[in-house]
């Protein structure tokens, strides 16, 4: 992860939980908050409800690898906290990668597309065009 750093401190996670927004799908929950830098910071949490330590670490590695592969789709200047849900331990790598991609599309890429489309509509409706 070249453009990303890790969230490590408890207060950083709590700040994202308290001030940020969240969204979820079947396998993951994403909490996100705009930060004051051009870097994306990522934190991953997997509770004991997911499974024993081997399973939890496997889930973390799969999420990290998914984020590494989808790095160009990560928004700049955000703190992202990914939380694995209880059924996530049985999910394979491709399922987790599609869950990560789904949450990124749902929260960041549609907003960009909608704002650019509304700008384009406004320009075409001006008199004299």
From TrEMBL:
<dbReference type="GO" id="GO:0030677">
    <property type="term" value="C:ribonuclease P complex"/>
</dbReference>
<dbReference type="InterPro" id="IPR014721">
    <property type="entry name" value="Ribsml_uS5_D2-typ_fold_subgr"/>
</dbReference>
<comment type="similarity">
    <text>Belongs to the RnpA family.</text>
</comment>
<dbReference type="GO" id="GO:0042781">
    <property type="term" value="F:3'-tRNA processing endoribonuclease activity"/>
</dbReference>
<comment type="subunit">
    <text>Consists of a catalytic RNA component (M1 or rnpB) and a protein subunit.</text>
</comment>
<dbReference type="Pfam" id="PF00825">
    <property type="entry name" value="Ribonuclease_P"/>
</dbReference>
<keyword id="KW-0378">Hydrolase</keyword>
<feature type="region of interest" description="Disordered">
    <location>
        <begin position="110"/>
        <end position="129"/>
    </location>
</feature>
<feature type="compositionally biased region" description="Basic and acidic residues">
    <location>
        <begin position="120"/>
        <end position="129"/>
    </location>
</feature>
<comment type="function">
    <text>RNaseP catalyzes the removal of the 5'-leader sequence from pre-tRNA to produce the mature 5'-terminus. It can also cleave other RNA substrates such as 4.5S RNA. The protein component plays an auxiliary but essential role in vivo by binding to the 5'-leader sequence and broadening the substrate specificity of the ribozyme.</text>
</comment>
<keyword id="KW-0694">RNA-binding</keyword>
<protein>
    <recommendedName>
        <fullName>Ribonuclease P protein component</fullName>
        <ecNumber>3.1.26.5</ecNumber>
    </recommendedName>
</protein>
<dbReference type="GO" id="GO:0000049">
    <property type="term" value="F:tRNA binding"/>
</dbReference>
<keyword id="KW-0255">Endonuclease</keyword>
<keyword id="KW-0819">tRNA processing</keyword>
<dbReference type="GO" id="GO:0004526">
    <property type="term" value="F:ribonuclease P activity"/>
</dbReference>
<dbReference type="InterPro" id="IPR000100">
    <property type="entry name" value="RNase_P"/>
</dbReference>
<dbReference type="InterPro" id="IPR020568">
    <property type="entry name" value="Ribosomal_Su5_D2-typ_SF"/>
</dbReference>
<keyword id="KW-0540">Nuclease</keyword>
<dbReference type="GO" id="GO:0001682">
    <property type="term" value="P:tRNA 5'-leader removal"/>
</dbReference>
């Amino acid at each position: 992860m070249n453009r990303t750093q890790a969230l490590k401190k408890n207060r950083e996670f709590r700040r994202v939980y308290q001030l940020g927004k969240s969204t979820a799908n079947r396998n993951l929950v994403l909490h996100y908050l705009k930060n004051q830098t051009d870097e994306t910071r990522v934190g991953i949490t997997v509770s004991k409800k997911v499974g024993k330590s081997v399973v939890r670490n496997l889930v973390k590695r799969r999420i990290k690898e998914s984020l590494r592969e989808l790095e160009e789709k990560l928004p700049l200047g955000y703190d992202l906290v990914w939380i694995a849900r209880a059924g996530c331990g049985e999910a394979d790598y491709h399922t987790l990668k599609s869950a990560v991609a789904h949450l990124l599309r749902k929260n960041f890429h549609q907003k960009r597309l909608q704002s650019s489309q509304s700008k384009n509509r406004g320009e075409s409706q001006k008199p004299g065009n």
